[in-house]
Amino acid sequence: MNERIKDIYEKYSHKFSSHELKPNTLYIVSTPIGNIEDVSFRAINVLKNCDLIASEDTRNTNFLLQQYGIKNRTMSYYSHVESGKADHVISEIGSGKSVALVSDAGTPCISDPGNILVAKCIENGIDIVSVPGCSSLIHSLILSGFSSKKFYFQGFLPQKKGRRTLLEELSSVKMPLIIFESPFRIYKTMKDILEHFGNKEITISRELTKKFEQVVRGKVKTLIERDIKTKGEFVIIINNY
């Protein structure tokens, strides 16, 4: 465990460790989007004491668990297997266990696995507890400087079929629009934004909360001409007023 984190955790963990988890319950646990110090004490308590952790990426989750000295059972639970594994998780919960659902980073169910499982839990009368924490879309919106009174979250755009039609529809939504994008399509998406929205003010955020966090702001044309490092996941916000 990182010594600095260990000192903080040992100083305060006694205040939270006595909170027992409920059986027959799904815990939706938000984890850091970059900086591992952003995890909450409540999240640590749940991950430490639950019976099973359903994880989108067990490698990332195991790294986080190691930092806090947590040794717990994990299972892989990513998008392509969610439909097949949801019933197994329901069965585990139904047998009296507490299960924690975590995504690769941030809050589960937001462009990440979890919606199918949550719907099945509701259908089966299973208790669901949300353990709040980091969300890259909210972090990016705050850093954009754009109005946050209302906004539209799109998530990832279709790569091919329906992409142009969706962009045309979004261009009529007059509020900040939040789009997730991969490093492989960031420049293509900026060119599409220029075509469908015009030369709007946008912000592009990457590597949020990490050492090399970057937020660039400006008109679309200007940012297309900039050399933006294509690493990490991107959050684009279009000021579509």
What attributes characterize this protein structure?
alpha/beta, five-stranded parallel beta sheet, 10 strands
* Beginning-to-end CA distance, first to last residue: 47 Å
Q: Estimate the helix proportion, in percent.
A: 25-40%
Order of helices and strands: HEHEHEHEHEHEHEHEEHE
- Number of distinct helices: 9
Radius of gyration: 20 Å
Strand order of the largest sheet: 3-2-4-1-5
Overall form: globular
Q: How many strands appear in the DSSP assignment? A: 10
* Biggest sheet character: 5 strands, parallel
Average of the residue pLDDT scores:
93
* Proportion of residues in β-strands: 15-25%
Low-pLDDT sequence parts: none
The computed structural class is alpha/beta
